[in-house]
Recover the amino acids of this structure.
């Protein structure tokens, strides 16, 4: 099945099984805003816990904060968001659709890259074992021609974006003969800048000075609290401040479900360091963060780094960790070496010293910063798109059946254990309830007694529950239950008294943290 169709199925599965709902659905929805349902919120909380614990529990020199969404408007001038948090937008005059001009160009580059991949695949089939990928890519005239086109477009785009040359961005679109995906025409407007921050008013008097912004990133709440945390926590450089919270951006192109939303959540950590050590720390955080992703066991080949072609003027290194979504490799996390830009700028705008006295170096300086910034919702989408599996299975009577199973990493699964009495009679329900009462303090458990056991298994598979236990007549005699594994569907008999230990060993966040 085409990846696009699988993605559509995933979106409807998320709704049907209480993971994600369109916001304000009964009023026809609000574009690019979503609500998390009863299972979605559990998965989201588990992702956040895995991140928070990996930062704050595992590192003595990282502490967390929770700053307000509303902040003094000068902060957004100092950070550069008022002046430069813009996307270049362009409209197609025929379809009346609005696009991010740089995204149109990136999509065009992607199409060219797909062309090369197809050529390589065709050749690999033709030549079999004798095929030399590198040689083919560096000598085949067709591949070289397309690669040259890619290089040229990329080079022009980086230059145009760096210099804010909107006319050149439009010219790239014209020269590359990019058409509107809806109307199929090349009837474009000029490219304009569009600021992504949402504005609102604070207080009862509505004038210019009362304009404030919904924060477009959580990072600034960390920067402006740098001295508060450093002093009150007697923190010594190098140290980090972590935060999880909502961020808001008036995205022009909101698409791919929860990949690009107007209200979303970020998990950000700013690591404060001595000037001159930033590239070393940048390399360390790159490695640490990639390990965090790979420890989920979703497949190492699903991730890659994408080093930025276009660096912000204050940054001296930046990379994205990309995940292979059904719609291709896309960014889930950014790691940026931001020099002393943010603290330096707040020092200038606020007039307050944002300096640190380094006792080892015996001098004052504005610390440098390496930041790691990941979207909770994108992380959620990566897990769900990797987990969603439709498979054929053999029933006990030899006939075939189908199931949809969410292979969510057990430590992140919304429900860890489902507890089923085989039948409602003979005291089995009471015994199952008793087990539930004991285990509910340790894990998110669900008790179910309706329908056949097979149907109950299917429902738990569909929400990704890694373990189900069945209480049957043997339970009453020997105090054992059957433990059924979601992924293999295998079952084993286990003593009730061992359940807590066995399951905790497989589903606690600790199992993930220990791999880091
Ligand atoms: N403080 C740096 C910063 O905000 P960013 O690359 O703009 O950097 C960081 O955002 C992460 O936040 C991204 O890697 C992505 O996971 C997430 N993110 C950004 N915009 C988003 C959006 N509109 N919807 C969902 N997630 C978003």
């Amino acid at each position: 099945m085409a990846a696009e169709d699988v993605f559509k199925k995933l979106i409807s599965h998320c709704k049907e099984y209480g993971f994600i709902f369109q916001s304000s659905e009964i009023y026809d929805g609000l574009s690019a805003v979503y609500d998390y349902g009863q299972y979605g919120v559990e998965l989201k909380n588990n992702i956040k816990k895995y991140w928070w614990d990996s930062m704050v529990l595992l590192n003595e020199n990282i502490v967390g904060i929770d700053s307000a969404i509303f902040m003094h408007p000068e902060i957004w001038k100092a950070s550069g968001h008022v002046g430069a948090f813009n996307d270049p937008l362009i409209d197609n005059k025929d379809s009346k659709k609005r696009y991010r001009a740089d995204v149109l160009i990136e999509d065009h580059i992607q199409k060219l890259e797909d062309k090369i991949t197809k050529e390589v695949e065709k050749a690999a089939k033709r030549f079999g074992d004798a095929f030399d990928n590198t040689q083919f890519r560096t000598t085949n005239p067709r591949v070289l021609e397309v690669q040259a086109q890619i290089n040229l477009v990329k080079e022009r785009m980086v230059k145009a974006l760096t210099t804010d040359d909107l006319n050149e961005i439009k010219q790239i679109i014209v020269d590359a003969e990019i058409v509107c995906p809806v109307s199929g025409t090349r009837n474009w407007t000029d490219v304009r800048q569009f600021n992504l921050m949402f504005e609102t008013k604070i207080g009862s008097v509505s004038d210019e000075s009362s304009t404030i912004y919904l924060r477009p990133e959580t990072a600034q709440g960390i920067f402006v609290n740098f001295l508060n945390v450093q002093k009150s926590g007697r923190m010594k450089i190098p140290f980090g401040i972590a935060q999880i919270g909502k961020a808001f951006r008036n995205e022009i192109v909101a698409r791919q479900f929860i990949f690009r939303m107007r209200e979303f959540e970020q998990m950000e950590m700013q690591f404060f360091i001595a000037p001159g050590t930033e590239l070393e720390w940048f390399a360390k955080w790159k490695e640490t963060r990639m390990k965090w992703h790979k420890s989920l066991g979703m497949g190492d080949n699903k991730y890659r780094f994408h080093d930025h072609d276009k660096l912000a003027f204050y940054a001296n290194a930046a990379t994205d960790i990309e995940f292979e979504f059904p719609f291709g490799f896309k960014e889930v996390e950014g790691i940026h070496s931001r020099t002393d830009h943010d603290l330096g700028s707040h020092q200038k705008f606020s007039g307050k010293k944002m300096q640190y006295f380094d006792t080892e170096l015996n001098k004052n300086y504005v610390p440098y910063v390496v930041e790691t910034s990941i979207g909770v919702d994108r992380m959620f989408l990566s897990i769900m798109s990797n987990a969603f599996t439709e498979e054929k299975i053999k029933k006990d009577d030899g006939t075939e059946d189908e199931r949809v199973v969410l292979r969510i990493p057990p430590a992140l699964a919304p429900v860890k254990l489902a507890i089923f009495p085989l039948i409602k009679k003979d005291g089995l329900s009471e015994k199952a309830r008793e087990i539930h009462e004991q285990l509910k303090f340790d894990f998110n458990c669900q008790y179910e007694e309706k329908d056949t056991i097979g149907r109950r298994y299917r429902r738990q598979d569909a929400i990704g529950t890694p373990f189900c236990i069945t209480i049957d007549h043997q339970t009453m005699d020997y105090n054992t239950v059957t433990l059924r594994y979601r992924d293999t569907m295998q079952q084993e008999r286990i003593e009730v008294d061992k359940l807590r230990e066995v399951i905790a060993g497989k589903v606690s966040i600790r199992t993930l943290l220990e791999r880091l």
Q: What stands out?
A: The mean pLDDT is 95. The chain has 18 helices and 23 strands. The two ends are 35 Å apart (CA to CA).
